[in-house]
Amino acid sequence: MDDQQKNGTDIETEAAAIDRQIQAIMEGQGTGDEKKRRPSAAGRIPFFRSWKTYSRRKKIAAAAVLLLFIFFILSRCGKGGSDMGTAVSVIQLKKQPIQEKLAVSGPVSGTDSVDVVSNIHAEITALNVKEGDKVSKGQILAVLDSTDLEREVAIAKNAYDQAVVQKQEKDKSEALGYEKAVQDYQKAQTDHARNSQLFAAGGITQAAMEESANALNDARRLVEGYTVVDGKGAADPSYELQINSAAYELEKKEEELENTQIKSTIDGTVVRVNSKVGQFADKVEDDKPILSIENLEQLELEIKVSEYSIGKIQLGQKAVISADILGEETEEGEVVKISPTGEEKGGGSTERVIPITIRIDGQDTKLIAGITARAEILVDSSDSAFAVPVTALINTPDGGDAIAVVENGKIRLIPVKTGIDGDVMVEVIPADSSQLEEGMQVVAGGGAGLTDGQAVTALPQSQEASS
């Protein structure tokens, strides 16, 4: 039997002996005077009372740890305090699944919403919906008093018609005037040409020649003073501007008249009604909308993510959504929108936040718009990664990270980069993949002062502690 088997047998034998002694104390089954004594203090201590419930494996493990501790103390004392190495708690390195999640929260809302408002100063004469009603796009929600607007439309229509008639009359008169001016100009050209010949022959005086030239110039200026469209005289542009202005005013009044029938612009559910019949549409209390509509068939979660975490967020990432209203249940969602710009966080903070939208899967949900929900966004994951407790990371002088492994009773520091960051565990990636192997003993924590080659005593963590 080798030393390891012998030690194992000794431990098991010692554990059995301890087991019998403790049971004897607890049950009063000792020999001689022990049967007559009152229960010892051990019987009144919860630890010893619970010893009976321990499995044999746990008792052996406990005895092993106790013997190891006694051996460690005695060895140090027996060697006059010689250094057997610092005791360190270790775990076995293994590949395992790991997930990194980002926890956020925000209000639940419909995917599409609209606040129905009106800038028309008119009384509400009818409200055709109430909160909770489902409405369709184009449906009439409310009706306003249209008496004044009908009169204003009639006035605007009359002004437009007059502007059109005035232009038509001006076009007609300008066409006739232009036609006569052209004829007069042509006659002046003929007269001036004849007079030029006569003047050259000495048939008319210089004064007569100048008079002829002036008449030609006057006729030309008269023709040039007309607005010509398609070869005909027409009204000047101001008449067209008057028509356009009148048309705009008429169109505006007709649109206002049409808007006295307030219609829904989306399919959805009426979630708020803030007005009542008799109120002016543009004077709702506290400047609230007349009513609000949301598409509750598809809900979304509006989240603001810190600028320090937004780099981890991508479109299509999955999220698990919880809320008080759901109890122990959860919903699933997906990141569908990331704002291209950030905004102030508020509260005097200099931090910026970026709005994102998580669409909640499915329509059959207990979630309702207006409440606050929480989401865990799965930002990264791996089914098989070397992962260690966060406490196992050691800061190196160059600002990097390392882990300490125990080999043959000595420390070896392995520089690593961190990858997926779970709640408790973190992925470690060495510069050379061959540097890490499953089964390595990794110092689980408190390794800040460890150095390469340092002698240590490895104390394995229990399965419960390391899992």
Task: Summarize the helices and strands and which ones pair or pack.
Blueprint: H1 3-27, H2 46-51, H3 56-78, E1 86-92, E2 95-110, E3 113-116, E4 124-127, E5 134-135, E6 140-144, H4 147-200, H5 206-224, E7 227-229, E8 232-234, H6 237-258, E9 261-263, E10 268-273, E11 291-294, E12 299-306, E13 318-322, E14 331-338, E15 343-346, E16 349-360, E17 372-389, E18 394-395, E19 401-407, E20 410-421, E21 425-430, E22 441-443, E23 456-460, H7 463-466
Parallel strand pairs: 1-23
Antiparallel strand pairs: 1-22, 2-12, 2-17, 3-11, 4-6, 5-10, 6-9, 7-8, 10-11, 12-16, 13-14, 13-17, 14-16, 15-16, 17-21, 18-19, 19-20, 19-22, 20-21
Helix pairs in contact: 1-3, 4-5, 4-6
Folded structure, characterized:
The protein has 467 residues and is an alpha+beta fold. It folds into five domains: 79 residues, no CATH class; 96 residues, conserved putative lor/sdh protein from methanococcus maripaludis s2 fold (Beta Barrel); 94 residues, Beta Barrel (Elongation Factor Tu (Ef-tu), domain 3), CATH 2.40.30; 65 residues, RNA polymerase II/Efflux pump adaptor protein, barrel-sandwich hybrid domain (OB fold (Dihydrolipoamide Acetyltransferase, E2P), Beta Barrel), CATH 2.40.50; 98 residues. It contains seven helices and 23 strands. A six-stranded antiparallel barrel has the order 2-12-16-14-13-17. Helix 1 crosses helix 3, helix 4 packs antiparallel against helix 5 and helix 4 packs antiparallel against helix 6. The chain is elongated and about 145 Å long. The two termini are 33 Å apart.
